[in-house]
Description:
BrnA_antitoxin, 4 helices, extended, BrnA antitoxin family protein, 0% strand
Amino acid sequence: MSKTVRYEVDLRNLPPLTDAQKAEIKALKALPEEHTDTSDIPPLDSAFWKSAVRNPFYKPTKTSTTVRVDSDVLAWLKSQGKGYQTRMNAILRRAMLAEIERTHNDRK
């Protein structure tokens, strides 16, 4: 008999915070930064960022859709072998991330 208890949480429909939880958050917000112990966090120097990767455990959900693509673009994607939809997604993701980074840098 397993003693493991599993819970499922719907992140889009979280239960409201209790009064005790609200009080704890308020008390933590009131603490000055120097009271936060960060001694167990290594510095994020250039060596760290050289080997950093996006969360390797993140797997975005897929959504089925219909997209109208120019015939020559689709032919080019398919000419590279199986996985043309994966390649199309990778191209779009690179463009999305570049746009997000550019927008983020513009706000600085």
